[in-house]
Design goal:
Layout lengths: L6 H20 L4 H10 L4 H11 L1 H10 L8 H24 L2 H29 L10 H17 L4 H12 L4 H26 L4 H21 L5 H21 L1
Helix pairs in contact: 1-2, 1-10, 2-3, 3-10, 4-9, 4-10, 5-7, 5-9, 6-8, 6-11, 7-8, 7-9, 8-9
Main location: membrane
Protein name: Probable membrane transporter protein
Membrane topology: Multi-pass membrane protein
Length: 254
């Protein structure tokens, strides 16, 4: 779907991937940058969504690798939530492929807006939730339901999935936020793995775009991690929020 006769489209996607990786490293929600970038170079919404979902996989793998020291001691929690995430992602992917594309075209503007608003209230939620380590045991049934629903969302659309997951984990799991953030990376990777398998078999993935975006998100994430201490997270967060809201409103009115 990328016109190789238009080099600007390739450059645009390369820059979008780098920025998305950096935003993921600092504030999260980088997929909300890639989705409108794909729309901007001519992708229809469904193809942009599935291509974006597949292209995010290497970034999630890198996140798990970088946070591996925070995972020991969470074996049981990882096992049960990973099953819930895999099942939920499978349901979301199935809904995306089975339902008419007109349903996705109607729903995706609302999902983009909701994902953007979720990013906007993320800091407020963290303040309201407080430190999960100060509370009691995991509320496992509620945790599994929340992870399953988040994964359904991730399999169907996936923008700001990490923000949705960390909110759910913070509400229902008892641990330090840095360890829950590592678990969020594992669950994001599980969701992404299911989407890669399902979409590779039955969705209009543009593999050239994936080949461009996947390595650039990795590089962007690495660079973003290096400069994260110097970059104002609030500024990045609100830039992504405003962009997401603008894209959602534009999709609503077109």
């Amino acid at each position: 779907m990328i016109d190789l006769s238009q080099p600007w489209a390739l450059v645009f996607l390369l820059v979008a991937g780098l920025l998305a990786g950096a935003v993921n490293a600092v504030a999260g929600g980088g997929s909300l940058l890639v989705f409108p970038a794909l729309l901007g170079v001519g992708f229809p919404p469904l193809a942009a969504n599935v291509t974006n979902s597949v292209a995010q996989w290497p970034g999630y793998a890198g996140l798990v690798l970088g946070a591996r020291r925070e995972l020991p001691g969470q074996g049981r929690r990882i096992a049960v939530t990973a099953v819930a995430a895999a099942l939920g992602s499978g349901v979301g992917c199935t809904l995306l492929l089975v339902l008419p594309s007109s349903v996705f075209d109607a729903v995706v503007p609302v999902l983009v807006i909701l994902a953007s608003l979720t990013m906007a209230v993320g800091p407020w939620l963290k303040r309201r939730i407080g430190d999960p380590a100060a509370r009691g045991r995991d509320r496992t049934p509620a945790l599994l339901v929340a992870v399953f629903l988040a994964a359904v969302y991730g399999g169907y659309f996936g923008g700001a999935l990490g923000v949705v997951l960390i909110s759910a984990l913070s509400l229902f799991a008892h641990d330090e936020l840095r360890r829950l953030n590592a678990l969020k990376g594992v669950l994001s990777l599980v969701v992404a793995t299911v989407t890669v398998v399902v979409f590779a078999l039955g969705a209009p993935v543009d593999w050239l775009a994936v080949a461009l975006l996947a390595p650039t998100t990795l590089v962007g994430g690495y660079v973003g991690a290096l400069v994260a201490r110097r970059m104002p997270e609030t500024l990045l967060r609100w830039a992504v929020v405003l962009l997401g809201l603008a894209v959602g409103v534009a999709l609503l009115v077109t």
